[in-house]
Amino acid sequence: MAAGSVSVLMASSTSPPAMPPPNNSPRTSRRWPERFSASIPTGRLRVAIPSPHRSIRTATGTRRGLIGIQQTGDLWESEHGATGNDEINVVDGGANYGWPTIEGSRTMPAMREPMTFYNPAVAPSGASFYRGQRFPQFANNLFVGTLRGTHLLRLRVDPASRRITGQERLLEGQFERIRDVISGPDGLLYFCTNNRDGRGNPVMGDDRIARLVPAP
Question: Which of 7, 40, 51, 75 is 20 to 30 A (C-alpha) from 180?
């Protein structure tokens, strides 16, 4: 990958199961711990945004999302569609994002369209804006882990217009299901996998915490 290389920081010391575990647990997604105070039940979102943009933001018409906060204070959300139509949204207080009436490319008056959507599904998961200095080319970029997509999604964002100006799929197929991603205090980009939940194809060392480091 041109941007850099990946080093694995932590890996499981046990062998992967020969078969996926029995389906004896609910198949609803288990929410990764949020980095901000957020409540995102189906249909309604309420987020307490920390300093320096301290505020409470509520919206409706969302469906099971995870969030990243831009340095401007804008709140970006990744969410699963019902079948395909996974979305990336910018969440404004009081807005209606359409679920379950519309999703993907469908429109209706007084309902917001997504910044972008994905068909077929990529199953977007944890999202985080890059805030470091080690990758200058990542400034204002939103990174999203994908489960079904098995890649780290990079979205170039124009903060003035709040538009996505480019997209790139990093590490495609190399780590299978990527659950979460975060910009570390050292300026590197960290992510973790989720291949042992009965839906992935775990290999030796799964699950892993890894980081993206600049190319020498």
Answer: 51
103-136 burial, b for 16+ CB within 10 Å, e for fewer?
Answer: bbeeeeeebbbbbebbeebbbbbbbbbbbeebbe
CB 43 within 8 A of CB 99: yes
Report in angstroms the alpha-carbon separations of 90 from 19, 22, 32, 72, 166: 39, 38, 20, 12, 16
Cα angle for residues 113, 115, 116 (degrees, 5° grid): 100
Burial class (CB in 10 A: 0-12, 13-18, 19+), 28: exposed
Burial of 148 (0-12, 13-18, 19+ CB in 10 A): middle
Distance in angstroms (rounded) separating the CA atoms of residues 136 and 105:
33
| Cα–Cα distance for residue pair 37/90, rounded to 1 Å | 17
pTM: 0.82
Walk me through the domains of the chain, giving residue ranges and CATH numbers: 4-214 (2.120.10.30)
For residue 67, what pLDDT is reported?
A: 74
DSSP 96: B
